[in-house]
Amino acid sequence: MIHPMNFHMPTDEEIHTAFEQGEAAVMAVFHTVATQVAALAQQLAKQGVVLQELQARLAKSSSNSGKPPSSDGYGKAKRTTSLRKSGDKSNGGQPGHEGQTLMAAEYPERIVTHEVPRCGHCQASLQDIEAVGYEERQVFDLPAIRIEVTAHRAAIKVCPVCGHRSKGSFPEAVTQAVQYGPTVQTWASYFPNHHHIPVERTTEIFADLVQHRMSEATVLQASEDLATCIAPSTEAVKGLLRDAAVLHVDESGLRVRGTLHWLHVACTERLTSYEVHTKRGHEAMEAAGILGTFRGTMVHDHWKPYFTYDACDHALCNAHHLRELRFIDTQYHQTWANDMAALLVEIKAAVAATPAPAMCLSPPELLAFATRYDAVVQAGFDANPVPVLTAEGAEKKRGRPKQPPPVNLLLRLRDFKGQVLAFMSDFRVPFDNNQGERDIRMVKVKQKVSGGFRTLEGAQRFGRIRGYLSTARKHTKNVFEAIRDAFEGNPFIPSPEMQ
Question: pTM value?
């Protein structure tokens, strides 16, 4: 390797000496200079590749790659650009949208009548005059909230015949001398698990709203009890997910005990299941107990361990592809990337425009889109020719050669064509994995609020509860009532008919 500082440029005296020595000496000087120039050019080319890779890495953000928005830093507001195209819809509510206007109640709980003591014209008394009508205005408000204490007393009686003392039976839920009821437990678990409010602030809510401060241990115990109460629902959801036709899966980092753990989600439009594990790959997926027997179509973002499950079909998230294609278009200025993005969006529009009961595009459309897809991929490879090794006898490195981002994406689009275009061959398969990303997003909000989980058990318990709440919400159930029902022994359990 020649350092630029070691490059030797012949002096005028050396050139003159070579000239006097003859043609052979002059040619030797030029050969020496040419060899040094070639070596420097090769070094500069390598440095250019490294610089290009560094620039590409710095240019990646959540809008053009699979990086999460949290990695964008303070400049993310400037860099984030939506992939959605502006449509013809105006701002605000759309036709057919159900409004939320406050409507008067037909049967109010309380009526307050405001009498007319005197005539507004002549001041005559109207105390004994019957009203001929009323103008009504309704005020919706909350009554004062306070904790009510119910004392359960079991009567003790002595039999006059045999003298035996008998005692009445307490309700099944009343097990302690002093305890909280199911509604208080519902509040205590509702705020931290559904709205991500920290435990200490949850105790403050009780103190401010019902003038009763409970301990942090009681709030934590409420979540532990809820996780036990919803166990039948958790197992039922896993069973339904294993039998689903299409399953969304995703994973994201989660801080537990100050170290990196992984949150895994498996979900559909109606079901959600979370698993928190120390590992990201196959071991964690097996621990979740869903993918091992799944036989439908799994939608994901091309994370390699998902492909270890070969008994099911796979579909890749095209939202990820659109972000990567945008990155290649803007960073590498390769037109094929923009062409591929436009083609994928066009196929998506064709799928949306196909009327029911069709479940896939027509054979001519499938062939036409597949042909255009192959042509764009080939154009991409033409724009990224394989470099030719110039040094003969150079030692070959082990493993696959490192490829630039455009080639890596092209290889994926070529080798996984069926998985990329699965959405046009089976309308049950979505264009992207947005369902999985949406379901994992709210758990990440919990980490932003709390900074992480203190114990793995606490993180896993939170995951089970969030799965229960998410599933209940997807079935349009009132989340607060779903929690209270669980504490009362009747957790919401979705049935196959609901799917």
Answer: 0.78
